[in-house]
Amino acid sequence: MTTAKNVQASEEAKEAVTAEKAGGGKTKKSASAFRTISEVADELNVQQHVLRFWETKFTQVKPLKRGGGRRYYRPEDVALLRKIHHLLYSEGYTIKGVQKLLKGQGKQQIIAEEMELPAANESAPAAVEKPKQVPPAVPEKLSDKQRSILEAMLGDLKELRDIVRGGDN
């Protein structure tokens, strides 16, 4: 079964190379086409060595490797890399934080979310961003002790804020 998948993936990669050579490498590929490391690096605006580094840190990213070690990224790999890039560069996650997120959510869920976003973004205005879901800051039910501790901390923070501002407000 795995061999059949590898053969199919290998054939798809060959077709991607043939299409790239025929079109001079500048034609727009279909959404299901494999991408070279340079194409993915250009799309994400990162250097190729960054993608190779991410492969070592995120085991979920597994491009197809052909003769000579040439990498071909499946659409799922590109979607995952796009999400990793967004989390690292836009959301401010650390590599360790993204690793935990990938473990917690799972590769398939993240890929599904990321594959939906580009299609939605093509028809939507560029300035509109999908609203973020923010988890509640504290649990809905606090014990009296927890509430009093938080209120004391809040009072301390307000005092520190006033000190920093230079006076009592």
Give an overview in words.
By secondary structure, the protein is mostly helical. The protein folds into two domains: about 1-125, Multidrug-efflux Transporter Regulator, Chain: A, Domain 2, CATH 1.10.1660; about 135-169, no CATH class. About 60% of the residues lie in helices and about 5% in strands. It contains seven helices and three strands. It has helices at about 1-20, 35-45, 50-55, 75-90, 95-105, 105-125, 145-165; strands spanning about 35, 65, 70-75. Strands 1-3-2 form a three-stranded antiparallel β-sheet. A hairpin with a 5-residue loop joins strand 2 and strand 3 (about 70-75). Helix 4 (about 75-90) packs across helix 6. The longest helix has 22 residues, at about 145-165. The radius of gyration is 23 Å and the shape is elongated. The protein starts with a helix and ends with a helix.
Key features?
Multidrug-efflux Transporter Regulator, Chain: A, Domain 2; 2 domains; 169 residues; mainly alpha
Q: State which percent range the strand residues make up.
A: under 5%
**What gap, in angstroms, lies between the N and C termini?**
71 Å
Element-level helix/strand string:
HEHHEEHHHH
The total of helices stands at 7
Q: Tell me the name of the CATH class of the largest domain.
A: Mainly Alpha
Order of adjacent strands in the largest pleated sheet? 1-3-2
Find the CATH topology of the largest domain: Multidrug-efflux Transporter Regulator, Chain: A, Domain 2
Overall helicity: 55-70%
Query: Any idea how many domains?
Result: 2
The radius of gyration computed from the alpha-carbon positions, rounded to a whole number of angstroms, is 23 Å
Let me know the average pLDDT.
Answer: 75
Total number of beta strands: 3
Poorly predicted regions are: 19-25, 119-128
- Structural class by secondary-structure content: mainly alpha
Q: How would a crystallographer describe the biggest sheet?
A: 3 strands, antiparallel
Q: What gross morphology would you assign?
A: elongated
Name given to the CATH architecture of the largest domain: Orthogonal Bundle
